[in-house]
């Protein structure tokens, strides 16, 4: 297998995106236009085929750390990996050869179990939408069904929208302080850029619930291919107490039920949130994070000093 490492400027966007779209691993995070929005910088491993086509690709997102560019999974990009047919191991060997430090890389494909890899298994939660809505709702747990009835009785006004700023403000005011290290301004800018790119392609559904004209909750869904991703959400205390996000999720499930789609809650590693998603009948789908270091003793010492200095 002849694997080439191409800088972003030399990647053929059409060939890359066609490879991702036609692969069994198809997911929106792998497209060039998506990576351009979320990654500080990225490059890619490519196996070329006939007439300029790509047989398999593996995006490698990078971030500047400790004075060097290292492999680092970006925000709003749950997992990547190899897109296409063939063995996965040669791509990991190529990554180690070209990049001596991997801060974190997430993949939906089981990575090689090597002694020099630090592996951790995670779960996103997904819901099969091919059954009809009545059957999907039957699998909500008792609390979710009760809270949905309460939300339906609360007379929320639900509207589709195109302005993401209320959602960002609501998150900043009601959720950001609960995240360790808070949320940097660049993260909001990154999401704005991503939203513009996604909405220009007709992939987004942005919805708000209002009471007395005031927005109390909002959700951003993205559908690409056969996967719908619950990409971002926020709610005020009023929205949370009124189960507004339960209503918004349920309404989308009603609309998409009976279609060959997978709804991905994009679960974080937080039991309370995972429990909320499981209450809709969602099941865990594994993915893995990989870390490794091939730095020498001097480089590791410099890295530790940099960490100490910044802390």
UniProtKB/TrEMBL annotation:
Domain BioF2-like acetyltransferase: 148-255
Annotated Pfam families: Acetyltransf_6
InterPro entries: Acyl_CoA_acyltransferase, BioF2-like_GNAT_dom
Protein's name in the database: BioF2-like acetyltransferase domain-containing protein
């Amino acid at each position: 297998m002849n694997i080439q490492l191409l800088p972003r400027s030399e990647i053929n966007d059409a060939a890359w995106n066609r490879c991702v779209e036609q692969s069994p691993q198809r997911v929106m995070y792998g497209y060039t236009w998506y990576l351009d929005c979320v990654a500080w910088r990225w490059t890619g491993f490519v196996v070329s085929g006939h007439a300029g086509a790509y047989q398999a690709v593996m995006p490698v997102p990078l971030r500047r750390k400790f004075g060097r560019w290292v492999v680092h999974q970006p925000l709003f990009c749950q997992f990547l990996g190899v897109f296409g047919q063939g063995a996965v191991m040669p791509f990991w060997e190529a990554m180690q050869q070209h990049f001596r430090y991997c801060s974190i890389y997430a993949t939906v494909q089981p990575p090689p179990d090597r002694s020099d890899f630090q592996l951790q298994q995670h779960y996103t939660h997904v819901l099969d939408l091919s059954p009809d809505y009545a059957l999907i709702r039957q699998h909500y747990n008792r609390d979710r069904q009760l809270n949905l009835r309460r939300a339906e009785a609360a007379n929320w006004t639900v509207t589709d929208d195109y302005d993401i700023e209320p959602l960002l403000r609501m998150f900043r005011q009601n959720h950001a302080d609960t995240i360790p290290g808070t949320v940097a301004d660049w993260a909001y800018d990154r999401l704005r850029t991503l939203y513009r790119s996604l909405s220009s392609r007709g992939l987004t559904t942005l919805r708000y619930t209002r009471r007395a004209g005031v927005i109390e909750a909002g959700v951003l869904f993205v559908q690409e291919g056969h996967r719908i991703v619950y990409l971002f959400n926020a709610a005020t205390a009023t929205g949370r107490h009124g189960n507004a996000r339960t209503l918004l999720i349920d309404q989308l499930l009603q609309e998409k039920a009976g279609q060959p789609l997978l709804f991905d809650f994009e679960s974080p590693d937080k039991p309370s949130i995972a429990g909320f998603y499981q209450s809709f009948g969602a099941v865990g789908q594994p993915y893995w994070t990989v870390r490794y270091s091939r730095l020498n003793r001097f480089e590791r010492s410099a890295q530790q000093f940099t960490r100490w200095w910044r802390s």
